[in-house]
Amino acid sequence: MKQSKLLIQTLRETPRDADVVSQQLMMRAGMIQKVAAGIYSYLPLAFRSIRKFEEIVREELAKDGCQELLMPAVLPAELWQESGRWKFYGDELLRFCDRKAKAEVAERRARGEKPDERDFYNFCLGPTHEEVITDIVRKNVRSYKQLPMNLFQIQTKFRDERRPRFGLMRGREFTMKDGYSFHPDDACADREYWAMFNAYKRIFSRLGVKFRPVEADSGAIGGSFTHEFHVLAGSGEDAILSCDGCDYTSNIEKTEAPALGAGENGTAFELKRDHFATPGVVGQVEQAAGMKDAEHDGMPIEQTSKFFLYRVTFGDGATKLVGAVLRGDHEVNPVKVKNFTGAAEMELLPLEEAEAFTGAKTGFMGPVGLKDVQVLVDASLKGAVNLTCGANRTDYHHFGLDPVRDLPGCTFTDLRMAAEGDTCTRCGKGRYQPFRGIEVGQVFKLGIKYSKSMGCTFLDEQGKENPMVMGCYGIGITRTVAAAVEQNYDADGIIWPWPIAPYQVHLLCLDPASADVAGVATQVEKDLEAAGFEVLHDDREGMSPGAKFKDADLLGFPLRITVGAKGLKDGIVELRDRRTKDVIKLKPEAAVAEVSAARDRIMLELETAGGR
Description:
- This protein is an alpha+beta fold.
- 29% of the residues lie in helices and 27% in strands.
- Strand 27, helix 14 and strand 28 form a beta-alpha-beta unit.
- Helix 1 packs across helix 13 and helix 2 packs across helix 7.
């Protein structure tokens, strides 16, 4: 491909609205162009990378017998109403009226009525396709003999993000691979779950990025258990903890925190109510320092406790209050609290309500004596005595809290946020190490959440009707390509992993006006393409060598071959590795052999590094 004919316009300056590295570099490299907030055109170079990643996905899924189909992007409200998600999905679901619904609204208004158009929304742009695929399967699969079945698509999705940002990382329109499996029982679904888990490991290993599969919370989509796949990058939105002694890795909201032991706080004594006064001091550390009496000039932070009061809402609409008690130097993990209660939704009790309920200002609320509150205590406080806690009286704290004695009916469980350096709960030997990650894929075991609500059933060997057990498997295609850039760049531009580089070789002709130089460059291009390599030939005239070098570094293809009059005087051209910056001088006729050797070395390094 001749660069003079390529649809590309590189930029020297970073666009002002580009927030993260991938967005900045891909816009500067002429790969993406913003159309509206969170909506981008994929120009030829970016589109080549996207298509390459899609083919990796297809090839690996084919090994496990997955079937590809394509579902519509515009979805009818009826299916979402069947599953119950039409009402609860939220504003990210872009709902709208078709021509027929708009005509009905107009007719009612003409009669003097004042209809709310939102009540007539009858379609949406699909952010995910559980309902549609379930409808397809329930109409086409009836017997256990047809199961299991794994179906997937690669399709444009739309989620109306409140704050679209970070380019392809969190856009409103994006390309996604979403797959769904259907099974006669849980055991079959579990086998497919792990088959997809391993397929995803192969996919991201082939991509050539460092990644981690991590245990995660299933969130609003539901499901029995789930893993996320994260590309490791300093710009990642997600905090990950990984054991340095075993394979245990999880999103920090899911990471199991080891119980740290009660500590030695002396012989237990009776609760001393309103013992410490710290007027106007609400910070945990400052309060601990201000807790003074005849025997204490401040309290150790680990002998204090903190209290959180939540309101949880269950699927049937019922609500109740839940209190969480933790050591003063620990942070509460709200996901653990919510999961323990089994609630559909959870919120901190609004401050005014909490103060009215406890009778104290913030900073002085505590668990003792509260009625109609389910009290959860972090496992690290099991066996602890002589703790401080809010007295439910402004400016005061109790001293001598023994959770078992003073909080009758309380439950001990893991509530705290795990931290760097904690001992791994799985192997008991390693320590948690922190990483930042960009979530690019996720596998769920959905169970019968959708098949039951939508009547997706099959007949078993006895002729009995049963709901199918489902799995769900997603990969953000465009997000993954951007994440690869977030992990692979330097001060000069992108450093593409070989498997998804738009082109593998950037051939720079420094003197295109010279027939001799242009002739050698063209022959090298032909030789490389005949050997199966993808070449972008920079044949642009009127460009200085420096400008071409800068563009080449910005575009970041794995290998660069430079053909210039100066080198050809000695019968040589230069081959440069974009990542290592190593340069080899070679004869033009040796280009195919040297590029082949460089490719083999790069691919071996990717195979070694992938997933680590």
